[in-house]
Amino acid sequence: MDGKKTLYSAIQPTNNLTIGNYAGAISNWLKLQNDYDCYFAIANMHAITVRQNPAELRQKTLSMLALYIACGIDPDKCCLYIQSHVPAHAELCWVLNTFTYVGEMERMTQFKDKSARHAENVNMGLMDYPVLMAADILLYQAEYVPVGEDQRQHLEIARDIAQRFNNIYSPTFTVPEGLFLKVGAKINDLQEPVKKMSKSAENPNGSVFLSDDRDTVIRKFKRAVTDSGSEIKYDPENKPGVSNLLTIYSVFADKTIPEAEAEFAGKGYGDFKLAVGEVVSDRLAPVKSEQAKILADREYLNTVLKNGAERAAHTAGRTLSKVYKKIGFYQI
Ligand code: TRP
Fold it and tell me: Whole-model pTM?
């Protein structure tokens, strides 16, 4: 479309998003949607590689979609859809399986990690996860794939599979490039400010989730660890706690770090932490009420999803048909 380059990304609906994801991934997607022909999928087929509660999976799929729209991802600008609504993903995955070696999959670090964490359920889907991800990307002939650093190996395999297929037959797939975007601001754990804020931190008070209500957000910031001394100064080396809070404040209040420092000069840690908590919850409030509004409008959501799936299926179908032709599947 419009000579723009194609960009593909997906998120699993099981992710519990933190304010770190908001400051990073979501804000990146917002910028990208203007410059690229974007496809963003909710990867529910990837999600079932670890056991899910069905009702929860369904609910999280919709609430994730509503959240992204509430944050400003525009379904008129980009193609937003649910992975399982486009059967071509499973179909291409099957073909690509025959171009992927068992040994390669056994060596993937995420597979090894997840097999250790879910030893009772090391299923074939878990092992096949990277091939399904390759199918996602290759179906759309995506040039760019914005992902976190943890997906680097998966992207590498997608490129290998694409090149392998192209070499055996003839150029069929665009070989995708990873966009490992430096997120605007790196947000750390409130309890252990030298570690990145994560969805699965040991101490739940260290992470602020987009789903937390105002009181919870404020309570978590009040309990955030600070550092010795009393000065509110950006010094990540010696004052990791205070520096992290200043970073969060600057992101959520749209101010520079020096502006934030000036604002809190002479104030105590208690007032400072409360102010950070307030600015974060003030900023999240409209997003959350918009999300709730969208979630309540099932008809609107279904329309978005139907349009998204139709558009995605059109693009994906063209690639799949090319693949079937090259490998010798008779088509009518
Ligand atoms: N595995 C990705 C993650 O957990 C999600 C994902 C699925 C994805 N399919 C994709 C990301 C295709 C980029 C492209 O983050």
Answer: 0.89
